[in-house]
Amino acid sequence: MPSKIRSTDDAAGHAIQLLTTLVHVDTIFIAIQEGSVYRIVQAHNRRDALAVSGMTFRADVSAIIGERLYHAVPISSNDCLIYGFIYLVDRDPITPSEDELLALGTMASLLGYTIDLEHATVTDSLTGLFNRRYLDELFQRSTDAPLGVMFIDLNDFKQINDNFGHEFGDLLLIEIANRLKQQIRQTDRIVRYGGDEFIICFHNLSEEHGIRAVQDKINASFIDPFMVNGQPVSISASIGVSSNQGRYASLKQLITDADQAMYQMKQRRKKP
User: Fold this and answer.
1) Residue 177: count of CB within 10 angstroms of its CB
2) Hey, which residues does 243 pair with through a beta bridge?
3) CB-based contacts of 32: which residues, under 8 Å, 6+ apart?
Protein backbone atom coordinates (compact mmCIF):
# COMPACT_ATOMS: atom_id res chain seq x y z
CA MET A 1 0.00 0.00 0.00
CA PRO A 2 1.21 3.57 -0.68
CA SER A 3 3.31 5.31 1.95
CA LYS A 4 0.78 8.13 2.32
CA ILE A 5 -1.52 5.81 4.29
CA ARG A 6 -1.85 7.26 7.80
CA SER A 7 -4.95 5.53 9.15
CA THR A 8 -7.41 2.69 8.71
CA ASP A 9 -9.67 5.02 6.70
CA ASP A 10 -6.77 5.78 4.32
CA ALA A 11 -5.98 2.07 3.93
CA ALA A 12 -9.64 1.30 3.29
CA GLY A 13 -9.76 3.99 0.61
CA HIS A 14 -6.81 2.48 -1.24
CA ALA A 15 -8.28 -1.01 -0.88
CA ILE A 16 -11.58 0.14 -2.38
CA GLN A 17 -9.74 1.89 -5.22
CA LEU A 18 -7.91 -1.31 -6.14
CA LEU A 19 -10.89 -3.63 -5.70
CA THR A 20 -13.10 -1.57 -8.00
CA THR A 21 -10.71 -2.37 -10.86
CA LEU A 22 -10.85 -6.11 -10.11
CA VAL A 23 -14.34 -6.87 -8.79
CA HIS A 24 -17.38 -5.85 -10.84
CA VAL A 25 -20.37 -5.45 -8.54
CA ASP A 26 -22.76 -2.57 -7.92
CA THR A 27 -21.27 -1.51 -4.58
CA ILE A 28 -18.18 -2.22 -2.51
CA PHE A 29 -17.84 -0.91 1.03
CA ILE A 30 -15.67 -1.53 4.08
CA ALA A 31 -17.19 -1.55 7.58
CA ILE A 32 -15.06 -1.48 10.73
CA GLN A 33 -16.41 -2.37 14.18
CA GLU A 34 -16.45 0.50 16.66
CA GLY A 35 -17.94 -0.53 19.99
CA SER A 36 -21.29 -2.19 19.41
CA VAL A 37 -21.74 -0.96 15.82
CA TYR A 38 -20.02 -1.16 12.45
CA ARG A 39 -19.04 2.10 10.74
CA ILE A 40 -18.74 2.21 6.96
CA VAL A 41 -15.37 3.90 6.45
CA GLN A 42 -15.16 3.76 2.64
CA ALA A 43 -17.58 2.91 -0.16
CA HIS A 44 -17.78 2.89 -3.97
CA ASN A 45 -20.88 2.62 -6.15
CA ARG A 46 -20.83 1.55 -9.77
CA ARG A 47 -24.59 1.71 -10.24
CA ASP A 48 -27.79 1.56 -8.17
CA ALA A 49 -26.11 3.94 -5.73
CA LEU A 50 -26.24 3.23 -2.01
CA ALA A 51 -25.58 6.30 0.12
CA VAL A 52 -23.75 4.36 2.83
CA SER A 53 -20.48 6.21 3.53
CA GLY A 54 -20.21 7.07 7.22
CA MET A 55 -23.34 5.12 8.13
CA THR A 56 -23.43 2.65 11.01
CA PHE A 57 -25.26 -0.61 11.58
CA ARG A 58 -25.27 -3.43 14.07
CA ALA A 59 -24.85 -7.10 13.17
CA ASP A 60 -27.44 -7.13 10.37
CA VAL A 61 -26.11 -5.43 7.24
CA SER A 62 -29.51 -5.71 5.57
CA ALA A 63 -30.49 -2.60 7.53
CA ILE A 64 -28.15 -0.77 5.13
CA ILE A 65 -28.46 -2.68 1.85
CA GLY A 66 -32.10 -3.78 1.99
CA GLU A 67 -32.89 -6.83 -0.15
CA ARG A 68 -29.72 -6.65 -2.25
CA LEU A 69 -27.39 -9.65 -2.26
CA TYR A 70 -23.94 -9.48 -0.71
CA HIS A 71 -20.68 -11.33 -0.15
CA ALA A 72 -18.67 -10.47 3.01
CA VAL A 73 -14.94 -10.99 3.58
CA PRO A 74 -13.83 -10.71 7.23
CA ILE A 75 -11.05 -8.33 8.27
CA SER A 76 -9.27 -9.85 11.25
CA SER A 77 -6.34 -9.20 13.57
CA ASN A 78 -3.20 -11.28 13.82
CA ASP A 79 -4.85 -13.26 16.64
CA CYS A 80 -8.10 -13.75 14.67
CA LEU A 81 -10.19 -11.00 16.31
CA ILE A 82 -12.74 -9.75 13.77
CA TYR A 83 -12.35 -6.02 13.07
CA GLY A 84 -14.88 -5.70 10.28
CA PHE A 85 -15.75 -6.79 6.74
CA ILE A 86 -15.31 -5.97 3.07
CA TYR A 87 -18.78 -6.13 1.50
CA LEU A 88 -19.60 -6.77 -2.14
CA VAL A 89 -23.22 -5.80 -2.90
CA ASP A 90 -25.21 -6.42 -6.07
CA ARG A 91 -28.73 -7.00 -7.35
CA ASP A 92 -27.62 -10.31 -8.83
CA PRO A 93 -26.03 -13.35 -7.10
CA ILE A 94 -22.33 -12.79 -6.35
CA THR A 95 -19.83 -15.55 -7.12
CA PRO A 96 -16.27 -14.16 -6.90
CA SER A 97 -13.65 -15.85 -9.06
CA GLU A 98 -10.46 -17.31 -7.58
CA ASP A 99 -8.52 -14.18 -8.59
CA GLU A 100 -11.16 -11.96 -7.01
CA LEU A 101 -11.14 -14.02 -3.81
CA LEU A 102 -7.34 -13.75 -3.71
CA ALA A 103 -7.51 -9.96 -4.11
CA LEU A 104 -10.21 -9.66 -1.46
CA GLY A 105 -8.23 -11.83 0.96
CA THR A 106 -5.08 -9.79 0.37
CA MET A 107 -6.88 -6.50 0.99
CA ALA A 108 -8.53 -7.89 4.12
CA SER A 109 -5.14 -9.03 5.46
CA LEU A 110 -3.55 -5.65 4.77
CA LEU A 111 -6.44 -3.85 6.45
CA GLY A 112 -6.18 -6.15 9.47
CA TYR A 113 -2.43 -5.46 9.67
CA THR A 114 -3.07 -1.69 9.44
CA ILE A 115 -5.61 -1.84 12.25
CA ASP A 116 -3.22 -3.93 14.36
CA LEU A 117 -0.56 -1.22 13.95
CA GLU A 118 -3.06 1.54 14.68
CA HIS A 119 -4.21 -0.20 17.85
CA ALA A 120 -0.61 -0.75 18.98
CA THR A 121 0.10 2.99 18.93
CA VAL A 122 -2.83 3.82 21.21
CA THR A 123 -2.64 0.82 23.55
CA ASP A 124 -0.78 0.44 26.84
CA SER A 125 1.65 -2.45 26.37
CA LEU A 126 1.23 -3.73 29.94
CA THR A 127 -2.52 -3.71 30.53
CA GLY A 128 -3.93 -3.65 27.01
CA LEU A 129 -5.98 -0.55 27.89
CA PHE A 130 -5.85 2.64 25.84
CA ASN A 131 -2.92 4.97 26.50
CA ARG A 132 -2.42 8.74 26.66
CA ARG A 133 -1.85 8.94 22.92
CA TYR A 134 -5.42 7.71 22.51
CA LEU A 135 -6.54 10.57 24.75
CA ASP A 136 -4.62 12.99 22.54
CA GLU A 137 -6.66 11.72 19.59
CA LEU A 138 -9.88 12.22 21.55
CA PHE A 139 -8.79 15.79 22.36
CA GLN A 140 -8.75 16.50 18.62
CA ARG A 141 -12.30 15.19 18.11
CA SER A 142 -14.27 18.03 19.67
CA THR A 143 -17.55 16.47 18.52
CA ASP A 144 -16.73 13.25 20.35
CA ALA A 145 -16.38 14.76 23.83
CA PRO A 146 -17.78 12.26 26.33
CA LEU A 147 -20.65 13.06 28.64
CA GLY A 148 -18.65 12.05 31.68
CA VAL A 149 -15.19 11.14 32.94
CA MET A 150 -14.06 9.08 35.91
CA PHE A 151 -10.54 9.48 37.32
CA ILE A 152 -9.27 6.49 39.34
CA ASP A 153 -6.12 6.56 41.47
CA LEU A 154 -4.92 3.50 43.37
CA ASN A 155 -4.27 4.11 47.05
CA ASP A 156 -0.82 3.27 48.44
CA PHE A 157 0.26 1.48 45.26
CA LYS A 158 3.86 2.58 45.89
CA GLN A 159 3.92 0.36 48.99
CA ILE A 160 3.05 -2.64 46.81
CA ASN A 161 6.07 -1.94 44.59
CA ASP A 162 8.31 -1.28 47.61
CA ASN A 163 7.26 -4.44 49.46
CA PHE A 164 6.91 -6.93 46.58
CA GLY A 165 8.83 -5.43 43.64
CA HIS A 166 7.82 -3.76 40.39
CA GLU A 167 7.20 -7.02 38.53
CA PHE A 168 4.63 -7.98 41.17
CA GLY A 169 3.13 -4.49 40.91
CA ASP A 170 2.83 -4.86 37.12
CA LEU A 171 0.95 -8.13 37.53
CA LEU A 172 -1.39 -6.45 39.98
CA LEU A 173 -2.05 -3.62 37.50
CA ILE A 174 -3.01 -6.20 34.87
CA GLU A 175 -5.50 -7.80 37.27
CA ILE A 176 -6.95 -4.40 38.19
CA ALA A 177 -7.30 -3.45 34.51
CA ASN A 178 -9.12 -6.70 33.77
CA ARG A 179 -11.52 -6.16 36.64
CA LEU A 180 -12.20 -2.55 35.62
CA LYS A 181 -13.09 -3.67 32.09
CA GLN A 182 -15.75 -5.94 33.54
CA GLN A 183 -17.55 -2.97 35.14
CA ILE A 184 -18.16 -0.88 32.02
CA ARG A 185 -20.01 -1.07 28.73
CA GLN A 186 -18.44 -1.81 25.36
CA THR A 187 -18.90 1.81 24.29
CA ASP A 188 -16.94 3.22 27.26
CA ARG A 189 -13.18 3.67 27.09
CA ILE A 190 -10.59 2.97 29.82
CA VAL A 191 -7.23 4.70 29.60
CA ARG A 192 -4.15 3.96 31.66
CA TYR A 193 -3.32 7.58 32.38
CA GLY A 194 -0.26 7.10 34.59
CA GLY A 195 1.53 4.41 36.53
CA ASP A 196 -1.38 3.76 38.90
CA GLU A 197 -4.00 6.12 37.42
CA PHE A 198 -6.88 5.24 35.12
CA ILE A 199 -9.45 7.33 33.28
CA ILE A 200 -12.82 6.10 32.02
CA CYS A 201 -14.60 8.13 29.32
CA PHE A 202 -18.35 7.54 29.22
CA HIS A 203 -20.62 8.02 26.23
CA ASN A 204 -24.41 8.00 26.13
CA LEU A 205 -24.85 8.31 29.89
CA SER A 206 -27.25 11.24 29.89
CA GLU A 207 -27.70 11.38 33.65
CA GLU A 208 -24.87 11.84 36.13
CA HIS A 209 -26.36 9.18 38.38
CA GLY A 210 -25.59 6.69 35.57
CA ILE A 211 -21.89 7.39 36.04
CA ARG A 212 -22.33 7.25 39.81
CA ALA A 213 -23.83 3.78 39.45
CA VAL A 214 -20.67 2.67 37.62
CA GLN A 215 -18.60 4.29 40.37
CA ASP A 216 -20.45 2.19 42.94
CA LYS A 217 -19.75 -0.95 40.89
CA ILE A 218 -16.06 -0.12 40.67
CA ASN A 219 -15.81 0.61 44.38
CA ALA A 220 -17.49 -2.74 45.06
CA SER A 221 -15.07 -4.48 42.69
CA PHE A 222 -12.16 -3.47 44.92
CA ILE A 223 -13.66 -5.19 47.97
CA ASP A 224 -12.44 -8.65 47.01
CA PRO A 225 -8.64 -9.14 46.97
CA PHE A 226 -6.77 -9.43 43.68
CA MET A 227 -4.86 -12.65 43.10
CA VAL A 228 -1.24 -12.21 42.00
CA ASN A 229 0.90 -15.34 41.68
CA GLY A 230 -1.57 -17.12 43.94
CA GLN A 231 -1.27 -14.42 46.61
CA PRO A 232 -4.29 -12.28 47.59
CA VAL A 233 -3.63 -8.54 47.50
CA SER A 234 -6.03 -5.95 48.89
CA ILE A 235 -5.96 -2.42 47.53
CA SER A 236 -8.45 0.45 47.33
CA ALA A 237 -8.94 3.34 44.94
CA SER A 238 -9.89 7.01 45.13
CA ILE A 239 -12.37 7.99 42.42
CA GLY A 240 -13.38 11.39 41.08
CA VAL A 241 -16.21 12.02 38.62
CA SER A 242 -17.02 14.93 36.31
CA SER A 243 -19.96 15.30 33.97
CA ASN A 244 -21.14 17.40 31.04
CA GLN A 245 -24.59 17.37 32.60
CA GLY A 246 -26.21 20.77 32.03
CA ARG A 247 -23.10 22.36 30.47
CA TYR A 248 -20.48 21.85 27.81
CA ALA A 249 -16.91 21.14 28.79
CA SER A 250 -14.02 19.85 26.70
CA LEU A 251 -12.52 16.45 27.42
CA LYS A 252 -9.46 18.13 28.92
CA GLN A 253 -11.66 20.13 31.29
CA LEU A 254 -13.64 17.04 32.27
CA ILE A 255 -10.41 15.19 33.07
CA THR A 256 -9.15 18.15 35.12
CA ASP A 257 -12.42 18.33 37.04
CA ALA A 258 -12.43 14.57 37.68
CA ASP A 259 -8.78 14.71 38.79
CA GLN A 260 -9.61 17.46 41.29
CA ALA A 261 -12.60 15.50 42.58
CA MET A 262 -10.38 12.43 42.98
CA TYR A 263 -7.76 14.47 44.86
CA GLN A 264 -10.40 15.77 47.26
CA MET A 265 -11.58 12.21 47.83
CA LYS A 266 -8.01 11.09 48.55
CA GLN A 267 -7.49 13.95 51.01
CA ARG A 268 -10.70 13.08 52.88
CA ARG A 269 -9.49 9.48 53.10
CA LYS A 270 -6.24 10.59 54.77
CA LYS A 271 -7.99 12.60 57.47
CA PRO A 272 -8.22 10.73 60.82
Assistant:
1) 17
2) 148
3) 8, 12, 38, 39, 41, 75, 83, 84, 115
Q: Which residues of 117-146 are buried (b: 16+ CB within 10 A; e: fewer)?
A: eebeebbbeebebbbeebbeebeeeeeebb
Question: What per-residue string of b and e applies to 216-235 under the rule 16 or more CB within 10 Å gives b?
Answer: eebeeebeeebebeeeebeb
Among the candidates 121, 156, 182, a domain finishes at 121
Neighbours of 168 (CB within 10 A): 16
Active-site amino acid positions = 196
Segments in 26-97 forming alpha helices (H): 62-65
Cβ count within 10 A of residue 14 = 18
Give tens-digit pLDDT for 185-226. Answer: 877 889 999 999 999 988 766 455 688 888 999 999 999 999
| SS3 category, 90 | strand
Which of 78, 236, 64, 243 is closest to 147 using CA atoms? 243
Beta bridge partners of 237: 154
pTM: 0.71
Q: Which pLDDT score is estimated for 147? A: 73
Cβ-Cβ contacts under 8 Å for 268 (sequence gap 6 or more):
none
State how far the Cα of 182 lies from the Cα of 240, in Å rounded to an integer.
19
Pairwise CA distance, residues 95 & 100, whole Å: 9
| Number of domains into which the chain is organized | 2
Helix, strand, or coil here: 41?
strand
Domain containing residue 264: 132-270
1 located within any domain: no
Residue 128 φ then ψ, to 5°: 80, 0
Q: Distance between CA 257 and CA 110 in Å, rounded?
A: 41
The verdict on 201 and 111 lying in the same domain is no
